[in-house]
Amino acid sequence: MFVHLYQYRLKTIIRSKEEFFWILLFPILLGTFFYVAFSNISKSTENFSTIPVAVALDDEDTFFQSYLDALSGDASSILEITYTDDEEAEQLLKNEKVTGIITSQNGEVTLTISQSGIYQSILKEIVDGYIQSYDVIHSVDLSDNSKLELVLSKLSSNQDYIRNLDFTNGNTDIFVDYYYSLIAMACLFAAFSGQSCADGILANLSPQGMRKCLSPVHRMTMILADITASCTFPIIANVAVIIYLSYILKVNLGGSMPLIFATSVLGTIIGVTVGLCVGSIYKIKKEAKIGLLSALSLFSSFLSGLMVGGIKYDIEKHAPFINKLNPATVITDALYSLNIYDTYEKYITCMIILAVMSVVLCMISYFMIRREYYADL
Amino acid sequence: MQTFKTYFRISKKYLQGFFIYVPIFFVIMMLMVNQQTEKTETKFSTSSIKISIFDHDHSTLSKSLADYLGEHHKLIDIKEDMDTIRDEIYQRNIDYILVIPEGYENYINACAQSPSAENTDSFTNDANTTDDRMLVTYKIPNSRFAAFADSQINKYMKIYSTYISAGADREEAATKTISTMSEETTVTIQASEKEAISYVHIFYTYMTYILISVVTLCISPILILFNENKIKSRLNVSSVSPLKINLQLALASLIYTFGITLLFILTSFVLFKDEMVFDKTILRIANAAVYALICLSLTFLLATCLAKQNMLSAIVNLIGLGQSFICGVFVDRALMSKVVLAFGRVFPAYWYVNIEEELNKYKHITDFTDSSRHTVIYGFIIEILFAVILFMIGLVINKNKKN
């Protein structure tokens, strides 16, 4: 009987176009839009790239020229230099072809830019470096020839005094947060499936419910078969969404794939149980339930950062308990922990919170559904 | 004008939806406008980033280095544990973390004071060295903010160790380094012609998303109702000719659409009265009106094809969100890849935003260059074509359905 009921419920879900759209197609399409919109942003707002600069020098200033040349030349250099005259340099700056103009006339070096910014500050650092080297030479007692050589060699060397350590092995692009929220949203959209499941069980909500109430099947078997089927499709759909994001769009979600899938499975179960719980409230109309569920899942995803990135970090500072109670944030936190940390403590905590939430929601819906009698329908 | 009147009588029933959508959209729009603020500047100011320093050395050198960085950047105290470091850097609360290991000053001094050749080599030029006596940093890989701090710290250390090599003692070297680092280039700002970000421009750009959603969601339920079989049959047996009925429906829809558009335009007048320039405003209104027409044609097409409101709102959501992402409404076009923008041409929002961007470039229409004029004219032509084509497709489908 279980298999029979399971099969039919699954068929109903797959044939319902709306559920198919919201649970599978909508997250895939929204993911594609995110990909299209965000794939270039980090590159143009955060990553370092060679700074184009126009240089107009006196003929005599070969020292300065060799100082600048040492910083340019290949693709990984700091500067990309265009040697030119004052007029053309100004034109280049005006057309935003270069970040700044470095000029040297009669030994005086100046920097011209069109606005303040990080690249302009780096340019200033570089030009300052030249002036400061002169200052060092002037303020050191150079009567000893070997000392002069030492100072010059020190000043002209490009030693690195810094050892850089990676703070994580995961993906450090903050835009990956949007994809986490998207996965959380897809999980919570499984609520529609849970709601239609409750609809099909309760006799006062649908003709199918009435028919089922009359059948001589144990309530528990019926409910379990329906819930299992309601979870099956969204789980498959959400795994498909993750596969689409990471293998077709090649978004680096960070962390190990099986654990990401596990998070999505538990997240989907949360979604279904939320739907089941809301669906079991028999005093609310079906349309209102759908409205309530879409509002709930979108608001929950909003708080986890679907529309405004980083909002959950602000909430964490002011009201951390909201983050612990909001299922979408817990799902994104689990995915974040997989990406950033090298231990699994925080991930396991998130998974336990999700498991407890779904058990509690399941119990609530069970108590609402069980032993329901109707005087008339 | 019975149909015309009925249209508005029905629309009253759906006004509830209108009153929910419009305020929500106004709030979203205002949030979006407020988010995009930019200051104009006349004086150069060096960028300041967020740095955390863990000083284990507590020496003259480490203190003077920390003071120097503190003077130029914002120092933030955090707990020194790896998970906190991970959280803070990932969340961009901190751009750069510097760890000064114990005995660093002694190590640097020893290197700088011994015979030159050997010791300069003791520093590798390789940032991946495993020498744990060196400064350690944590940062977002390949970040331009970190590159700035790297270059400052490297320069500071280079100057300090040069002074030590030249025979200065620790105190002297630290003081001299600070004084040398204060030598600065004169920086001049060449006033760029780029104007300050215009709120009107942002408002009208975001209107692409708002208009398509509001117009479609308000008008489609009415059209779907008129398309219902029973009502259609009743209308067909009436004495009024189908042409008249359709004309009345079209007129009512047009009035409703322009009413909604007018509401948004009036809002822009109220909010940004001082920023509005007469000739540009006329073009903006025209652009919004033509775009509203496209929205109406799309509504007509969708209401003809789909009988269910739920499916229709799903599709409208998709088109609205999709074109806003692809055509540069939500994300600045300068940050988007060219391939995506080229793909955006198939959506009406692309042409709407094109006109809007041209309008934003100049103070008055009279300043337009030839190419700007062409962009605007082409934009309008393509927008009108969109409206006509969508409407025609709707008509053809409608006709076939009847047959």
Count of separate DSSP helical elements of chain A:
17
Q: What percent of the residues of chain A sit in helical stretches (DSSP H or I)?
A: 55-70%
N-to-C CA distance of chain A: 26 Å
Order of helices and strands of chain B: HHEHEHEHHEHHEHHHHHHHH
Main sheet attributes: strand count, strand direction, barrel closure of chain B: 4 strands, mixed
- SSE class of chain B: mainly alpha
Q: Assembly state here? A: heterodimer
Can you give the helix content of chain B as a percent range?
A: 55-70%
| Spatial ordering of strands, largest sheet of chain A | 2-1-3-4
Uncertain runs of chain B are 116-122
- Strand coverage percent of chain B: 5-15%
Fill in the keyword field for this structure.
heterodimer; A: 377 residues; alpha/beta; D-Maltodextrin-Binding Protein, domain 2; 17 helices; 66% helix; 7% strand; B: 403 residues; mainly alpha; abc type-2 transporter like fold; 4-stranded mixed beta sheet; 16 helices; elongated
